Amino acid sequence: MSRKMGRTKNSTDDMINGALAQQQDWHERRQSFARDFLTSLNMFAKPNPNRRVVGRPAIKSDEKTPDNRNKNRTVLREYWFPILCAFVVIFVTIWVLFHHIGANSSAQPVPEPIVRTVASELKTPAFDIVRIGNDGKIVIAGRWKPDTRVSVYTNKKLVATLITDDNGEFVYAPTRAWAAGNYTVYLMDVATHTKSEDKVFLYISDAGMENSVSLLMTRDGSRVLQAPTMLRDGDLSVSKIDYMDNGRMVITGDGLPRLRVSVMLNDEILGTARISDYKHFGLGADVGDLTPGDEYTLSVRMHDGDGNIISTITHKFIMPQMTGDDDTYYTVRRGDCLWIIARNFMRRGILFSMIAARNNIENPDLIFPKQKLNIPVKQ
Question: Is the pLDDT of residue 74 over 90?
Fold first, then answer.
């Protein structure tokens, strides 16, 4: 028993001694590495001639020492490694900078993704682009079934027949410019007579593409394809402002076809109206009693198909004293109908029959431009 315990104790002592020896060896190796590392760093340190080494007598500045005798040793030899590192860093920085600039200058901008319905999923021919160029030249691009004949109609008149490619796409770009005016464009499959669900309204201005309009007409409303970029004086105008005893105001004027106008009185919106194909608009709204002698500000704004304001007219007026004349007259303009006139002046379009009766009109669907109508405002 005592022999076994002695062997165990000796074995434990050996393990402890071995661990201590390994730890001492690790400390010595760490100290040796630290000395070597500091020595290597010391070789790059600038010599200090004023530093005095312990055990060595101080050296006067006029004595010839090994350092003084080696004054011809250049700074480059003393600091070659830091200088080399500095040049490497500068070179890498310049390379990265020029490489980055070159990459940016040569990179092409990534276009916005175009989400389109696949031609095989279309139920009718569809428009992609309808643009009005210089001198009235237009470009029409669309899609339908691959290798299919598609006709282009403007104002119900056939102008071209094209064949779609393997992807179902086609482009119509006539070399002859279209005359200034209004056009309604739609597509039709030649074989099945399938008409495009959407139509495009074009207004080609005699002032050029800057004043022209292209609108995609859908069941959900209109969407601008090309908006006017520059307007002339007269593209938006107010021709008449009527104020009646019943507190209703009617504003008539002219603008770009198929766009919309909004009317505000003293920063309070009265309503919106669509400009007809013949550039005319009319809007009636209840404004209540206007005080004679007070100043009012009437603003008419024209919007494109996306609702952006492209033109504004501001008219300030002082409300005159009412004369008490019950007669209100309106001059018919091209594109008017009695329903719209009754809605503007009498609040309800269904009252158009009263206008017809007052003016002895036998056929309410037949009125003529410049025809003067007496409006029965007081019923």
Answer: no
Q: Can you give the pTM of this predicted structure?
A: 0.58
**Which among 226, 261, 290 is the end of a domain?**
226
- The string of pLDDT tens digits covering residues 21-39 is 777 776 677 677 667 765 6
> By C-alpha distance, which of 162, 299, 202, 289 is closest to 241?
299
Q: What local confidence, expressed as pLDDT, does residue 91 receive?
A: 81
Both tokens of residue 219? 């069941």
Containing domain of residue 370, as a range? 326-379
Residue 119 above 70 pLDDT? no
Clarify whether residues 135 and 217 are in a common domain.
yes
pLDDT digits (tens, 9 = 90+) for 230-251: 888 888 999 988 888 778 899 9
Of 234, 229, 238, 135, nearest in space to 179 by CA: 135
Give CA–CA dist 300/236, Å, rounded.
9
Distance CA 299, CA 309 (A): 12
The four Cα atoms 330, 335, 340, 345 give a dihedral, to 10 degrees, of -20
Distance (Å, rounded) from C-alpha 342 to C-alpha 229? 35
Residue 288 backbone zone (phi > 0: left; psi -120 to 50: alpha; other: beta): left
CA distances from 272 to 242, 281, 332 (A): 17, 10, 20
The answer to whether residues 285 and 354 belong to one domain is no
Residue 45 tokens, joined:
């340190």
